[in-house]
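Hey, sorry to bother you again with one of my protein questions. I've been staring at a protein lately and its backbone has me curious. I owe you a coffee for this, so here goes:
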Amino acid sequence: IKQLEFQLADEPVLGNWRITVWNNNVTESETFEVKEYVLPKYDVTIKFPPYVLANEEIISVEVCTKYTYGKPVKGILKLNASLERYSYSRDKTPVLQETIEIDGCYNYTLNISRIEPDNVYRYRRIMVVANVIEEGTDVQRNATEYLQRQYLPLNLNFNTDQNYRQYYKPGLPYNGRLKVTNPDDSPAAGEPIEICATVSRKRIIFGWLANKKVKYCSNYTSDYKGFIKYTLAPQSTDAESVQLEVKKFQNSYLEDYAVSNKAKTLENLSIVDLLIKKMALSHLAGPLAKTCQI
C-alpha cells in the first residue's frame, strides 16, 4: 500500500472529479467531490456540573447553542439522556427523549432514577445527546457529552509539597500538611477533619520487652485553600512507629477516605518509618460501606 498526495490549485473547479491510477495492466478509478468549505454557522455545547457523586439523584444539565459571533440561536432542541451503551452489552436501559423550543440555552434537570431504575450501573457514564434544528433554515447541529460519576466525595493527600519535611526526629514536634480537595481537584474549604496518631512504643523493663500503643486525636477544619496544618507532639526514643489516620465527620457518622503517604525517618535514628494508614470509602446508596486496607 502506498499513500500519495495531490495538491489542488488555489481556486480549483468545484464539482465531481475522477482520479485514475494504473499499474501495468491494472487500472483503478475513484470519484471525489471538491466543494467550498463553509464554517459552521453555530455550535451546540452541553455542560455538566464540575463533578457528580455516584449517589446523586438529580443532575443539572445546561445545553447552549450560539452563532459563531455570539448571538443565541432559536430553534428546536431534541435531547436524549441515557446511560452509556456498550456494543457487546445485551441489557437495555431507558432512554429519555425530550423535544422543546430553545433560544440560546436550556437548563435540563435529569432524574437519575429514570435512566437507572435499579441502581446497578453506577459505574457507567451518563450520556447526553443534543440535536438543534435552526429556526427558518432547518440546519442541524449535534453535540454529545459523557459524565463519569465519582465515588469519593473528597480526596485527602499528605504529599502536598516537595519541600515539606518528610521525616521527624525524636524529641521534636512533627509539622505536616494535609490537602483536602473535591473530586474535580478544586480546594475543599471548611471541611471538618479528624487526624489521629497511634504511637507504637517498645521498651525493655526489668529484662522484659514491653509493647504499648497510645492514640491521640485532634479535630481540624480545612482553610479556604483546602489545606490543614497539623502538629505531631514530640515523641520519645522508645516510639517505634507512628500511624496517622484521617477521618471526616459528617452528620452522625464517620466517613473514611483513601489517603496514603510514607515519610522516611533519618537514617541515624532508631525510629522506623512514619506510616500513613490507607483508608477507602465505598460511597454507595443506603448504609455507608467501609473498607480498610493497609
In short: Residues 251-294 have pLDDT under 50 and may be disordered.
